[in-house]
């Protein structure tokens, strides 16, 4: 029997071995880049690099969640997407706090380190984006994965601009401004993901009621 459109049916994309393989690849890339970038960010004293590193960590966790709910019902997938959106929102708020701390302490990051690590991060995120683009029109859970990757590419470009700004001005303000921009992207992406997930959750809940009624009538 082909999968129906109700919540009781798993997503066809959930059974896709290709999508599962891609998720494992991008999970490994993000986990590795988190370790590399968090160390470089601390050594360079860069709020933007540290923010980007934590973004890699959040994405790795999100990809792990996506792998967990593959093949599950629409409600589960929508719920997972909502959790990922909420985590992105918390990340954005944390970055805002980090920027305030660095601004108060007058930190000036090491621009060359920012440039090298930012370039590596950009290359890795472009690879992830290319791999995930084929799945950008799926359900809220799949769209959330692609949105995260798209935001990461934009953030990496901003980090490189921050490195140039720090090098040219000798101050940390370009770094702070980019970190704020990254926080804004995270908050915007979080709102978009949570909105899609809430809509799909409600849609799935609406479809469950007729199914349960039909099942109950069938037993009478």
Automatic annotation (TrEMBL):
It is a multi-pass membrane protein. Coiled coil: none annotated. Keywords: Ion transport, Membrane, Transmembrane, Transmembrane helix, Transport, Zinc, Zinc transport. GO terms for molecular function: zinc ion transmembrane transporter activity. It comes from the Bacteria. InterPro entries: Cation_efflux_TM (IPR058533), Cation_efflux_TMD_sf (IPR027469), CDF/SLC30A (IPR050681). It is found in: Membrane. Residues 23-199 form the Cation efflux protein transmembrane domain. GO terms for cellular component: plasma membrane. The chain crosses the membrane at residues 22-44, 56-74, 86-104, 110-132, 153-170. It holds the Pfam family Cation_efflux. PANTHER family: CATION EFFLUX PROTEIN/ ZINC TRANSPORTER, RE54080P-RELATED. This is Cation transporter. The lineage of its organism: Bacteria, Pseudomonadati, Pseudomonadota, Alphaproteobacteria, Rhodobacterales.
């Amino acid at each position: 029997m082909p999968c129906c459109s109700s919540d009781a049916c798993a997503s066809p994309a959930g059974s896709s071995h290709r999508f599962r393989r891609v998720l494992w690849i991008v999970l490994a890339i993000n986990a590795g880049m988190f370790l590399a970038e968090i160390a470089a960010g601390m050594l360079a004293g860069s709020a933007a690099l540290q923010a980007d590193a934590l973004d890699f960590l959040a994405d790795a966790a999100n990809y792990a969640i996506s792998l967990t709910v593959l093949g599950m019902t629409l409600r589960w997938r929508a719920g997972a997407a909502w959790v990922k959106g909420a985590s992105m929102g918390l990340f954005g708020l944390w970055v805002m706090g980090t920027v305030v701390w660095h601004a108060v302490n007058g930190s000036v990051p090491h621009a060359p380190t920012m440039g090298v690590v930012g370039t590596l991060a950009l290359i890795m995120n472009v690879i992830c984006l290319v791999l995930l683009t084929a799945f950008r029109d799926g359900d809220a859970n799949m769209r959330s994965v692609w949105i995260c990757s798209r935001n990461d590419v934009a953030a990496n470009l901003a980090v490189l601009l921050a490195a140039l700004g720090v090098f040219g001005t000798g101050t940390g303000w370009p770094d702070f401004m980019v970190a704020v921009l990254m926080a804004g992207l995270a908050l915007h992406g979080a709102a978009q993901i949570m909105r899609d997930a809430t809509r799909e959750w409600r849609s799935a809940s609406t479809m469950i009621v007729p199914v349960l009624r039909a099942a109950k009538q069938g037993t009478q």
